[in-house]
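call fold(seq) -> tokens
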Amino acid sequence: MRMPGSDDRTAVLEVKDLCVELGIRGRWVRALNNVSLTIHSGEALGLIGESGSGKSLTALSVPGLLPDNARVVSGSIRLMGEELLGKTEQELNRLRARSVAFVFQNPTTYLNPVLKVGQQIAEIFEVSPELLGPADEIGKLSKRARRQLAWDRSIDYLRLVKIPDPERIVRQYPFELSGGMQQRAVIAMGLVRRPYLVIADEITTALDVTVQAQILSLLLELRHSIDMTLLLITHDMGIVAQLADSVAVMYSGSIVECADVRSLFNKARHPYSKALLEAVPTMHGRHTIFRPIPGAIPAITDPPSGCRFHPRCLHAIEVCSHEKPDSVLTAPGHTVACHVYGAPAQ
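ret:
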């Protein structure tokens, strides 16, 4: 994430002061509190935090995929400069189809088990034939020729995501593929429409370590080969270090720290960011050392007053218990919301 004025590249996604509420037990409770983030063209932003911190809810807010018991109460979400909040369901469907690709955690859930992989990709071209080429040229083709072209393009996209022998895989059903191959197929389906933004939500969690490394290597290559803009939702600091340019640390529905990857890993300022880094297991000889964060994320139905992290914070001072800290700029491109470490850089 870059600060305003630091880069003249196009801002693909701009989220500003986003507030979302959830209906729980007959009342509305605040789940996201003034969330703001920006991703420029070709960048990858890692949104990190423990489970329950609001990462997925933030991501689902972008294409308007919030659950029925959620509502946006204020804020702004702009994609390529276009405001998304307030759009009709039909307009959002068009957005989801063309501008935003969402890759979820479990690929099996999002692949039709009774259709071959190639059929599911080719169907996208049938619905949007403009993806095959200029309308005047595609219009001259017979229906059979268009189908064959869509099938060939499906093979091309499977090849793009490094699926071996795509001519064979395109004719297989999802259950015939491994988890890693299924995830690659889902990524290929997402890239067909050449979206402005790819949102990857914990996409390696259900995979074994070797396949995780392969998927991460694929995403890293795609970032550079097709200039992919990526919002990466994860709790794995290793993934962030490998893939992201910048990081937004989230806790209990709020962004507590934003910085480029190197700055965060070398000099995290917020106590929660430091605790996340210290919780990553490290090897010392034959021993594995890690420092778990004490306590748990508070329930959104009964959050603590002041800074929501203060009951778990080893550096909390008196003001933390009753006053919510503002986000301040502590260094170029580095913002922190903390009473202890939030003094602006001199």
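The mean pLDDT is 88.
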